[in-house]
Amino acid sequence: MNHIANLTWHFTNVRCGKLLNVLQIPMSEITDQTLQKHAEFLPALKVLDVSNCLNIMFRGIEELGRHCRLLIQLKRNMPPPEPPQGNNTAARVVEEEALAVANTMPMLQQLELAYGLFSDLALNTILNKCPLLRALDILGCWNVRLGGDLEERCCTLQSFREPWEPEYCTDSSSGGDYDDDNTDSDD
User: In which region does residue 169 sit, left (phi positive, over 0), alpha (psi from -120 to 50) or beta (all else)?
Assistant: First the structure.
């Protein structure tokens, strides 16, 4: 059974129970049209991972938000975008998807939007319209500048991963490759 048929079968079975709380379908080929057709059958959904689903756009996210009113965790991480070419080329800004999250998912507590193309405008709207938000990951959202009071507001969250945090940074207990105390080498 192909991936889309498998998802359609899954959504069809959800119609009977409407009890699904967690749906994790990262890297799937699911589309906005599939979400528009089946989102109404997911009213109990609380946790959703649609990371790297390249065929989902803001209309699908909006549809999920309208029908999945209990959603408290959304993972919508995307692959890093291609860097702009040339000195005068600005990064592309796309606010619609982040605004769809803000406008339809007021119960969110945890939100991952790594490598989103939105700016401070959409981030401000998310912070205003998702008052229960306590964890936010916007790694790689290079259009976000954290202007005005946005940085302060984000830092009041229990967990905040800013756009520019290097991925190689780890806490000291992780046993990473770099050890400042051990500068001697046996080589």
Answer: beta
pTM, rounded to two decimals:
0.80
Using CA atoms, how far residue 27 sits from 12, 160, 181, in Å, is 20, 24, 41
What would the CATH number be for the domain defined by 3-81+91-169? 3.80.10.10
Closest by Cα among 38, 81, 37, 29 to 56? 29
83/89 Cα distance (integer angstroms):
9
Q: How far apart, in whole angstroms, are the C-alpha atoms of residue 21 and residue 124?
A: 28
What are the backbone angles phi and psi of residue 127, rounded to the nearest 5°? -65, -35
User: 10-28 pLDDT, tens per residue?
Assistant: 555 545 448 899 999 999 9
- The tens digit of pLDDT for each residue in 3-14 reads 555 555 555 554
Give residue limits of the domains in the chain. 3-81+91-169
